[in-house]
Structure formats: structure tokens, C-alpha cells
Amino acid sequence: MTLTTLVTAAQLAAQLDNPAWCVVDCRHDLFDHAFGRREYAKGHIEGAYFGDTEADFAGPKSGSNGRHPLPAREQVVELFRRWGMNNQTQLVAYDAQGGQFAVRLWWLARWLGHSSVAVLDGGWQAWLAHGGRIGQALPQRPTGSFEARAPLVRYVDASYVLAHLSDNRTTVLDARAPERYAGEQEPIDPVAGHIPGAVNRFWQANLADGKFKSAAELRAEFEVL
Q1: Which H or E run includes 118?
Q2: Domain spanning 158-222: CATH superfamily
Q3: For residue 143, which of 36, 74, 89, 90 sits 20 to 30 Å off, Cα-Cα?
Q4: How far apart are alpha carbons 193 and 176 in whole angstroms?
């Protein structure tokens, strides 16, 4: 079984002892960077590794490259190998924040050409509700042989966005909360507001009761943006 988008708690529980699966805890808090590690130490999905949004999933900050610049591909390859992954491994990412941090690992895996990656639908809360096994021990796996392949996703930089602001074939989507988009509230960034012409679609609108809406429902909602 290969999963490329979402995995349910029941599906994951059935594969938890499968050495071909790798589970990563991506819990994080933008205001408290130690939150994820603390929660991981208290208890995590049994056998899961911890992935640090600030240290593992981002590169060095220069002061002009954003809050979470992309890491070097080689950095992520080495991380995957430390998790015992090879190119056949089914990777599963989860968090406790509706997927907003787990999806970064999902994207990074696809950036390295790895399609067998899924986000736990409902995250940590769904795992607890399912009665899934919880542990505190650090996993021990032999170093993996993962190799990067051609990217399955494309990324753009600020220069690209600036050059395409007037292109009617390009839609800039702002996934932040409406009050941040409107510039009414800005708890993190130094400047309030949004990119000119950007459309607001709060990422939480993709969820219903903490889990992702159906593909058909999401498609219908995105088509009217």
C-alpha cells in the first residue's frame, strides 16, 4: 500500500510495526519553538521520530530570506537517511495543529522526488481518539539509503511572485487567518497586510472537525476563488 496524500489513524495503526513505514512527529508552535520537542518527550506515536520545523525543515536565515527558508536538498536527504529511510519507505507526518506543520514535511519529501508520503488525517488528536499506541522512547533504525530524485513539486521565490502580480494566469493565495490578511492583526511578521492581488483562503477552511474535507468538496471551494 502506497499513500500519497492522507492516512487515517486506523490505517497507520495497522502498519505501525512495518519497517517500511517511517512516522515523524512535526508538532510545533511558532511562538514557542521548544513546544514540539517537549510534547514529543511527553509522548508520541510509538516509533515516531521528531522533525523540528525550525532546525530540520528550514535553512539558515540571512535576514532577507523569510521566516522558514528552504533547506538545502542535501540537508533533507541526510535527515531522511538518519530516519532510516530508503526510496521505498512510506513516510507519514503528523502534528497537533490541523496539519499546518506536517504538510511542510509532505512538501519537502515531494521536493526530493518522494511520492510515498502522507499526512495523518486529524493528527495527534485523531491518534489519541483511535487509541493508538504511544511511546516515549527514541526510535533506533539503521541508517537509510535514501537518494533524491527529480522534484514532484515546484517552488517560486519572491522575485517570481513580483514579476507575475499582473499575470491573470497566476493566482497568489494567502493561507493565513483573515485578520492577518486584512492587516488588522499581525503577531509575527514586521509588516501587516498581504501581497497585492492575493486571494485569502484560510488554511483552516480546508478542515471539518479537525480532518480534511473530501477532495470533491475542496475542489468545489477552490474553483470559486
Answers
A1: strand 117-120
A2: Rhodanese-like domain (3.40.250.10)
A3: 36
A4: 11
